[in-house]
Design a protein that fits this description.
Length: 322
């Protein structure tokens, strides 16, 4: 009896022909993008999809589609740009303006401040190290914020579904897809993997992930970092055919006079979000939803954020408070 069981086990193993997983990482979309699956050629092809989205949504490249839209105030958009803007307007409406891609002028101001701070930190001539004000760092002026705020409001984006064209109804406006492009790109890559016949994969664009199928007999296991102790994992997510993303105040920020200023902006005030949240993790049926919603809930705060996410199918929220 024992012998027969042993034989069946051996036959079973031979039948499943285990193939090793390959992981490839590339610098894209301003972050590290990793794709893990058992088919190398499929990985290469999936990266092409991510590259396409980067080419469209990169604000730093003056030739990108988004830069051309921002410069001209109108464009005959590619399907991908159109989809990303459409999706963003959905979150704008659902959140009553907390998620708003027209925050771009404010994002520019605050990201410039974050850069200034980073430069000071790494300067060898910083004198009294690490203490904001003493190193000459100042906050943006109220008039600067006011000017930028006057350009904000996604209701001033006009879309024409029949021609995929879009335009701004106020001159000087601009958009920033930083809160949704990574999730959207992950979904595109996953679609390409599926077309290549892949049934098990992990795509991770700087913490915006999608887990396709399982890894062997188990779900994919994703660790979420502690917002204040980068070496520590606070919890694990076990995912199968699901996306997940975390928005936090701990990757791009500066501290001045003991106050933290991050890269997620409250479009109502023009200032970085100032609530009790350090990070929001969203699990959702796709990566674009988890990306868009994690930023949205971060801005909305716990009560309103949970209320909104509670209305959406297949969505789970994990909030870490300060
Ligand atoms: P990350 O890009 O760091 O993973 P998020 O997905 O939360 O984090 O996106 C933050 C980015 O979204 C910012 O860097 C900025 O480009 C943009 N952004 C900031 N505030 C808002 C907002 N209220 N609505 C939409 N986009 C925003
Ligand atoms: Mg996001």
């Amino acid at each position: 009896m024992k012998k027969i069981k042993f034989l069946i086990l051996i036959l079973g193993l031979a039948g499943c022909s285990f193939q090793p997983y390959h992981k490839e990482a590339r610098l894209m979309l301003g972050t590290i993008v990793e794709i893990t699956c058992q088919d190398r050629a499929a990985i290469t092809s999936a990266f092409e999809e991510i590259k396409k989205i980067e080419t469209i949504a990169n604000n730093f490249n003056p030739d990108s589609e988004i830069s051309r839209l921002n410069a001209a105030g109108k464009i005959q958009a590619s399907q991908d740009l159109y989809n990303m803007v459409r999706e963003s307007l959905k979150y704008y409406r659902l959140s009553e303006g907390a998620f708003d891609i027209t925050v771009a002028p404010l994002v520019n101001i605050w990201k410039e401040k974050i850069r200034e701070f980073e430069n000071k930190k790494s300067s060898p001539y910083q004198g009294e190290a690490g203490r904001g004000k003493s190193r000459g760092l100042t906050l943006p002026s109220e008039s600067q914020i006011k000017r930028a705020l006057s350009l904000v409001g996604s209701d001033k984006i006009s879309l024409d579904d029949s021609t995929s064209s879009m335009s701004f109804t106020q001159s000087g406006m601009s958009i920033d897809l930083g809160a949704i492009a990574k999730g959207y790109a992950v979904d595109k890559a996953v679609r390409r993997l599926k077309e290549s016949g892949v049934r098990s994969a992990l795509v991770n664009a700087g913490g915006n992930v999608y887990c396709l199928g399982k890894k062997g007999s188990r779900k994919w296991r994703i660790g979420v970092r502690h917002p204040r102790k980068p070496a520590e994992i606070v919890f694990y997510l076990d995912l199968e055919n699901q996306g997940a993303a975390t928005s936090g105040d701990y990757e791009q920020f500066f501290i001045l006079d003991k106050k933290r200023y991050s890269h997620i902006i409250d479009p109502k005030t023009g200032w970085p979000v100032d609530n009790n949240i350090s990070s929001v993790t969203i699990i959702a049926p796709d990566a674009a939803t988890s990306d868009g919603l994690s930023t949205t809930v971060f801005v909305l705060g716990k009560e309103k954020g949970l209320e909104l996410a509670g209305k959406m199918d297949g969505v789970e929220v994990k909030i870490i408070e300060k």
